[in-house]
Amino acid sequence: MKIGILGYGNLGRGVECAIRQNLDMELAAVFTRRDPETVKILTETAQVCRVGEAEQWKDRIDVMIICGGSATDLPKQTPEYAKLFNVVDSFDTHARIPEHFAAVDAAAKEAGKVALISVGWDPGMFSLNRLYANAILPEGKDYTFWGRGVSQGHSDAIRRVEGVKDGKQYTIPVETALTAVRNGENPDLTTRQKHTRECFVVLEEGADAAKVEQEIKTMPNYFADYDTTVHFISEEELKKNHSGIPHGGFVLRSGVTGWEKEHSHLIEYRLKLDSNPEFTSSVIVAYARAAYRLASEGQSGCKTVFDIAPAYLSAKSPEELRASML
Amino acid sequence: MKIGILGYGNLGRGVECAIRQNLDMELAAVFTRRDPETVKILTETAQVCRVGEAEQWKDRIDVMIICGGSATDLPKQTPEYAKLFNVVDSFDTHARIPEHFAAVDAAAKEAGKVALISVGWDPGMFSLNRLYANAILPEGKDYTFWGRGVSQGHSDAIRRVEGVKDGKQYTIPVETALTAVRNGENPDLTTRQKHTRECFVVLEEGADAAKVEQEIKTMPNYFADYDTTVHFISEEELKKNHSGIPHGGFVLRSGVTGWEKEHSHLIEYRLKLDSNPEFTSSVIVAYARAAYRLASEGQSGCKTVFDIAPAYLSAKSPEELRASML
């Protein structure tokens, strides 16, 4: 299986690493908007090409993994490249998934290609667990907690505050809320009761710490609805202790069964990730295998994790899977 | 969707309760080896029939759920009824799944029916989580812990000991082992290090407690390889505190990503179940929906949870699922 990577940021590099762990796959080429001369990749056997050259690789790449951002890149790129390749993306703007699906589906169907969108862990593995748990326990309550982990969007928001030189934001689930859910108490939780936010901020020379803290804590949408803690630290400390991109979270469903709903059950799925982009990439690469196989069967159009039978993700044969994992 | 239940024990009753929670399904009939006059079911609109009458229901039942035991019932029943109906079973003898699959597949293919085998939580949801986690993290280590829950097989073993009037056995995961796995320590765990066994025993009048305890603790296969605790209690206490059938457990995969395998990740799936048979039944009923849909598409043959795209389990449409759960 020959894989292409379009866009070589954190996610693209993660995909490159994940391909190395899957012996039935090979990285063919990385496509970049930058000057290829300036882009150094890790895989010696793969080429670095200009994004404009992608079309020439039409018959040499089985699946193109599109590693752009959801805000502006993917809504354009995924439909565009689905005309040329089987593609996988990690589009994560939940509210806009239906329109993204429609655009990608039209392009992929016309070209006879398979396109998998919104692959990763949320959307992705978390979505799958919501679906399975809801199908099994139709009467119940869903909970999703994120963290402890770095939120890129909230870190960016901190960095836009005047007087801030650099910063990182951690989203943290409230332990007592998580415990209440696990105990089957089915609490109704406000935004504030579910997560806290912790910020590590490096100030510009001469900036007013109190003013910066106040501005962060009252920022609408991002922080105002949460209990937020702000720590001021040195640039060295930020680099030393906060340069990783950990994340994770919990999907829980608490439900009842029995003629009189007399029995309670809890389904919990948890991720604890050292590297958010590398884990997302690992999910994407497993689904690239599925895209390849579906295309080999003659299927086409846009699909999501909901549409893919689990066996398609594994390098093992159905017989091996039944004998070893069932 | 009209459902039949073959066998009306704990599992059959659980299926009946689960059908009530799924508005697109209806229980048509329960088939029993007992005298139908003596079997009282909960659903007023459904019939109770002799198992020998099942064939007459060929065109009135969309999916037959076979609620027999794995030791002797299912190896005969599932291939037999797959000739007449789309079927779902919960065959759970892991080592014999390949041969069961082959027998059921031949029967179902010849009849043009869909047969789903080994549906439940282990095999079933635990298997799915092993597969997903292995596909995402090819380099890693798997762990499955069961409990805290009642093991039917071990409870039966206790009751066969001379001097024992009644008894219940709980399988309990060792907390320190679970913590080590969660911390990414990738421990190699012996049988004894993973689970303990706790027994609640009611003695026959005049039985020798010390002898019974010794016999239980040294029983090969069942208890000898575990740290086992035996509590002697009264019949009333057993009835009052130990008449439930709770169970559950944990599937974990600890793995690494990155060019130099520098990042660790943990995927954990946990079930905490008040009623083992009712939860198993709830999984089965969701997969009955999938069996019905696959059959409507003209598919046939034996399938497992690995072969079923998640969307088939849900009563919601693909559009609704994408908009609400992705």
Keywords:
alpha/beta; homodimer; 7-stranded parallel beta sheet; 326 residues
Overview of the molecule:
The model of chain A has no long low-confidence stretch (mean pLDDT 97). Chain A is built from eleven helices and 14 strands. The radius of gyration of chain A is 22 Å and the shape is globular. In chain A, strand 1, helix 1 and strand 2 form a beta-alpha-beta unit. Chain A has a seven-stranded parallel sheet with strand order 3-2-1-4-5-6-14, with helices on both faces. By secondary structure, the first copy, chain A, is of the alpha/beta class. The longest helix of chain A is centred in the last third of the chain and has 21 residues, at 276-296. In chain A, 50% of the residues are buried. Chains A and B meet through helix 1, helix 3, helix 4, strand 13 and helix 10 of A and helix 1, helix 3, helix 4, strand 13 and helix 10 of B.
Number of helices of chain A: 11
The end-to-end distance of chain A, rounded to whole angstroms, is: 26 Å
H/E element string of chain A? EHEEEHEHEHEEHEHHEHEHEEHEH
Most residues in contact, chain pair and counts:
A-B, 69 and 69 residues
Task: Enumerate the strands of the largest sheet of chain A in spatial order, edge to edge or round the barrel.
Answer: 3-2-1-4-5-6-14
Query: Proportion of β residues of chain A?
Result: 25-35%
Compact overview of the structure:
Two copies of one chain form a homodimer. The longest helix of chain A has 21 residues, at 276-296.
Task: Set out the fold topology.
The structure is a homodimer of 326-residue chains.
Chain A: E1 2-6, H1 10-20, E2 26-32, E3 47-50, E4 63-66, H2 73-81, E5 86-89, H3 97-111, E6 114-116, H4 125-136, E7 140-146, E8 149-150, H5 152-159, E9 164-173, H6 175-182, H7 191-194, E10 195-203, H8 209-217, E11 227-232, H9 235-241, E12 247-257, E13 263-273, H10 276-296, E14 301-303, H11 318-324
Parallel strand pairs in A: 1-2, 1-4, 2-3, 4-5, 5-6, 6-14, 10-11
Antiparallel strand pairs in A: 7-12, 8-9, 9-10, 12-13
Helix pairs in contact in A: 1-10, 2-3
